[in-house]
Amino acid sequence: MGMIQRALQRLGSAFRRLVMLYHPRTLREKGWVWASGVILMTLLILMLGLSSYWSREPDPLDVQAVTRAHLATDLEPVTGSYTTATLIGMVETLLDKPGGYLSNDVMPPSVWMDNMPNWEFGVLVQARDLARSLRNDMSRSQSQSVENKYLAIAEPQLNFSNDSWIFPATESEYRKAVKALQQYLNDLSSQSNQGTQFYARADNLRDWLAIVEKRLGSLSQRLSASVGQERVNTDLAGDPDASQSTVTPAQLAIKTPWLEIDDVFYEARGTTWALVQILHAIEIDFRNVLNKKNAAISLRQIIRELEAAQQPVFSPMVLNGRGFGLVTNYSLVMSAYMSRANAALIDLRDLLQRG
Questions:
Q1: Interstrand relation of 229-232 and 251-254 (parallel, antiparallel or unpaired)
Q2: Domain of 86?
């Protein structure tokens, strides 16, 4: 009991000293230089606290709950509802998370932050890819089909510049995309509107996975280049008649610049976060296709690898030790998870292609 009382007394004493520090009489006695220093220190502490809070990565989406929340009370989920609602939820998360959308901010403290804006870009790229796939493939039965008018609005809106501060602001353009996607979701779930469709076919899923495969492959290469590598040039491998625009050396030295290592790492964090949400929705909407191909377990393995890449980061900075050095290398760890997910994804695409 005595220890608790002494701790409370110390806390009270510290609080009184803090109050006296900002007391007008103290500020007058110390002079304007002291007052300015106190105010500046206070602002820096507040900005540091805000930066830390705004840098927290959002929790995973509950795909079922998000879909229910975006459907009208009189509508039930149909094929495609979960994927569309998850896309809406992802964009809303970018806009409405603590601190809001930070990539286009021009005021402190967000203008000094780079981890969360890169996380946002990773999520945004996946949202753009999915919106493009929805517009060009999943909502159309064949190449001659008319595209959905709402998806024709949403897809270019999401491709608007990610760092426009004003005239127009990026947030306003992305909210237009959310509005158009919501209208598509409403029409999709309405039994009276048969012109709006979502086709859960193996070829549509395979085409989207091909895009994801390239995204993961590129990020994995950029992550693994954090320590620098000598790579054999395989650009023309597999085709003896292939050619390219300009001649490149047979050996390539690849290294991600030191100042960009954390940027690539957090872009990969955003990418894996977004893919986990989308794949959970895909698992529901494409259930029949996956079960027929006996591919559901392959999809779950991909999700498991991507979820492992979302483990909490306890270091205040992205560590970049050598491959077998004393200090760990976060980029190589992330690359390992993404490479395994990509390998499983290639197997899944091959499985979907079989009859």
A1: antiparallel
A2: 61-231+251-353
